[in-house]
Amino acid sequence: TTEGILPHSLHAYFLRPGVVDTPVIYDVNKVRDGRSILSRQAVARQSGRPILEMSTSFHKKEEGYEHQAPFPENIASPEELLKTIQPEYLKIQFSNSGEETPFILLPGKQTLFTSSEKEEPHGYYWMKATETLSDSPTSHLCALTFASDFGLLSTSLLPHETTIYDRQLMAASIDHAMWFHNSAFRADEWMLCYTYSPWAGSARGFTVGSIYSLDKRLIATTTQEGLIRRIPKAPPNI
């Protein structure tokens, strides 16, 4: 409904878990069409119940002042990491219901998402789509939005000696936001996601991610707050 004008930001709230074998119906509401900025609201429904609400803002391309945060230091390249990481590790850690993820993820530290040792709440990983995408910028923005969910909640757990794979932990995304800074990138080429978690509390974790292209351009920023609720162990039967 925006006639080729690309999004510059979105904010989504996850209301209920989705079901992979049930159709999703999207209702899109045209909120406002300004001279340069357009706003849309969307609701995703399954079986008549809303599972996601999202507001998206679109901006017609124009010139302006420019600067960006520098590319992080001491980052190993994808080629360096591919020499040390086991392909089986990627397949096991980033599979869903037995199906491989449509993205390859290369964590800077192999135990980034699986270590139960106490660590500082920051890390990085490279990612790219496993298949070649079309040349449409929208395809790459959508693919990046999908991939931006990886690793954020895991980062918020690093100081707490647990992982999202802990069966005594209930972890789920509550809300997720994206800001797109540059649409001249390809999601089927390597992108760096540098994450840090400035806060966790009240059974929630908050993480910020800066996403760079291989040529060190800041292409997007993402934030996520999620549930990281500790499940009490059942008392022993006496």
Describe the structure.
This protein has 238 residues and is mainly beta. It folds into two domains: 1-60, Hotdog Thioesterase (Thiol Ester Dehydrase, Chain A, Roll), CATH 3.10.129; 76-232, Roll (Thiol Ester Dehydrase, Chain A), CATH 3.10.129. Helices cover 12% and strands 42% of the residues. The chain contains four helices and twelve strands; from the N terminus they run ββββααββββααββββ. The strands form two sheets. It has a ten-stranded antiparallel sheet. Strands 5-6 form a two-stranded antiparallel ribbon. Residues 92-96 have low confidence and may be disordered.
At a glance:
The chain has 238 residues and is mainly beta. The chain has helices at residues 78-82, 87-93, 137-147, 152-157; strands at 7-14, 25-33, 37-46, 49-59, 95-96, 99-100, 103-107, 122-129, 169-180, 191-201, 204-213, 218-230. The longest helix is centred in the middle third of the chain and has 11 residues, at 137-147.
